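#data-curation
PF: Archiving a pair of folding outputs for the training set. Convention for this channel: one message per protein, sequence first, structure tokens after, nothing in between. First:
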Amino acid sequence: MFKNKYLCKFIALLITVITSATLASAAQAQAWKPSKTVELVVGSAPGGSPDVMARVVQNIFQNTGLVASSAVVNKPGAANTIGWAYLNQHTGDAHYIATISPALIGNKLMGTSPLTYTHFTPLNILAREFVVLSVKADSPIKTLADLTARMKKDPQSLSWAFATARGNHNHIVMSMYLKSIGVDPAKVKTVIYPGGGPALTAMLGGHVDVYVASPRSMFPLQKEGRARILGISAAERQTGALAELPTLKEQGSNAVFYTWRGFMGPKGMKAPEIAYWDATFEKLAKSPEWRKDTEQQFWNPSYLLSAAFTKQLEVEYEQTRVILADLGLAK
């Protein structure tokens, strides 16, 4: 009986110690937060959609206090690969996150980069964005039918521009459209810019004829009378301000495609760090500030957090492989 009494006390004490240690460990695991300035890495030049996404997010972080200290860092070049390689240098450090788009998949499939989503920690998708085909307001190309007739007559007669990488969503939509009218995309004069800003400047300066870009870039210019949008890559007419834009599909081209935009971290991030960013971005995605910004940027808000996003990437890798192979872009 004496032995049992002290044995019971010992077991109770042991349980208390183990429970306390477990709770302390769990609390410590859940308590991770940045201890220094967070870098939002952008693999393209200032002015393009990835850069705008990063700056919108950083502004909300700053104004709402979601993240105490953050900064946007542009690392343009090599179809986003320089920026993503920079992120890859910070394995396991959750203070570095970078914008992500389907270009990460496309670059790998085309052989322009060894990196793909498995080299990083996918964090989220925050929004979807369609693609538009645009010309200067004073261009002789007034409609998509005009563009089609011109390209069928002479595929070399017009120059096309987009940013930031061969095989990205802009290139895919351009190629889908050209193939739908019987033109080989490889035979078209194409200029690829390191960012949306330089590409837009080239179009407005008359250095290129057709610009493939986001509604965010072109719709305000159409309203100002400086550009003309010929069609958008949505399956059906959009709501709100973009409702006036005809789709490429309704004009006879089955070029239906969109990109998504979000963030990823370096490989080797720990569960508490991923949980921190999941919670932070979920708060951001539900904030009135984000809703206002997505409306202003003509983004379609639609977020996925880390676990769901990673599964989605597995599916999209195969879908993108099929699309790029069909367009003759995949290795």
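PF: Second:
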Amino acid sequence: MSGTLTRMKIIGYSDERLSSECGDITVQINPASLKYSKGSKFGGGRNFGTSAPAKTFYLQTETGLSFDFIFDETGVIPLLLGQADTTIPALVEHLEKVAYRLNGESHQPNFLKLSWGSFIFKGRLTGLDYDYTLFRPDGSPLRVKVKMKLSGWLDPLTEARQVGRSSPDLTRRIRLTDGETLALWCDRIYGDPSYCVEVARENGLGGFRHVAPGTEIVFPPLKRVRNGTL
């Protein structure tokens, strides 16, 4: 329904495929702004025989998200539904359990998915700051501004689709630049540099170690490489 308030939710997962959920927290007030950045990864240096830089595209990836939100215990802001303890220390404790502390099973901080309406961001926490701004006479906090910074992260399946590792019908053509090797590109495309032997054979090369810059290499679909049908 139009006009319905949707609150941002931060969900923690113990595994990189985001299949094992282990807690979540919903913010009281949605952020007033999101600072969101994207980037691309490139490999290589310069085209052979030229002075112009010509880096080869490898992967597009979300690189960062930062935002602020508020936890408030004054009663001015509606309490979080379903949250048993809404004191500031309890809310901070729960947030850190979801997003910051080491998971007892994986022994690393959780993988995170931020959900806010149609906006979805997958990442890992890289920064968490607190700005306490209001207190009771006894010094206990009544309000805190939370500043979060996440580093964007692609799950293995999404990354594989982008670089063509899992596509059964995708052939890639790469022109090697100075400093690049077959092993380097096999690692990028297939996730395994050892496939360079099969790729060299597919391209009619005498070997895989010394391939001249400027050589165009055909990287066949991963299924053909794995099945040895080159």
